[in-house]
Each structure stands twice: as structure tokens, then as C-alpha cells.
Design a protein that fits this description.
Layout (H helix, E strand, L loop, with lengths): L12 H5 L2 H10 L5 H8 L3 H15 L4 H10 L4
Organism: Cellulomonas rhizosphaerae
GO biological process, one term: regulation of DNA-templated transcription
GO molecular function: DNA binding
């Protein structure tokens, strides 16, 4: 029988469902930058970032950038 180390577990079920890239995009949303600037930083198109942002919003249950940033801070992503 093995004892599991839970210290590295995410803080919520929603965090588990976010991909690594979605967590990166979510963290970037807290900066004072446009989606175009985020896309440039991540070497992807603006449309890719828009799709990732929509996916993040849906997964964490928010509808605005400020709500997403507040959620990220609350869950230790930013």
C-alpha cells in the first residue's frame, strides 16, 4: 500500500480540467495586454488565444476577463 502525496494536488476540480496552455493564457490575462500581445508572446495566432480564453471561461464558469483574473488569483494560478 502506498501513501499518496497530496501537497501538489490542484486546489479545485476546475483547475484539474485546465490544460497547461490554458493555465498560461489565464495567467497572461492578468497582465495589462491585449489578446494580440498574448498571442505574440505565445507564438500563436490571436484566434488561437481567443479559443483558449473561451475554453477557460467555460471551464471555470466566468464570463469576463476580470472574473477570470479574480478566479486565477483565488486559485493560485496568477
Amino acid at each position: 500500500m502506498t501513501i499518496l502525496d497530496t501537497s501538489e494536488q490542484p486546489t479545485s476540480a476546475a483547475t484539474v480540467s485546465l490544460t497547461r496552455r490554458e493555465r498560461v493564457v489565464l495567467a497572461e490575462l492578468g497582465e495589462d495586454v491585449t489578446l494580440e500581445e498574448i498571442a505574440t508572446r505565445l507564438f500563436v495566432t490571436r484566434n488561437t488565444v481567443k479559443s483558449q480564453v473561451r475554453s477557460v471561461y467555460r471551464k471555470i464558469g466566468v464570463s469576463t476577463r476580470s472574473e477570470a483574473v479574480a478566479w486565477a488569483i483565488e486559485h493560485g494560478i496568477r
